[in-house]
Amino acid sequence: VYKWHIDLTDALGEDCTLFTNVTGGNWKNMKNPRTQALLYTFRREEERPDLVSLIRPLGVILMCEAKKSLVELYNNSSEQTLAKHVEVTNNLATELGDAVPGWSKKEASSTIIPTLLWCTDEDSKPTSDEVSKLFRAFSAELQGGGYDGPMVLVGLEVIKDSEMKLSTRSYVYHDGGNTGLVGALATFLSGVQSVECEVHALTDD
Question: How far are the Cα atoms of 79, 107, 110, 183 from residue 199, in angstroms, in the given order?
Answer without folding.
Answer: 28, 26, 21, 9
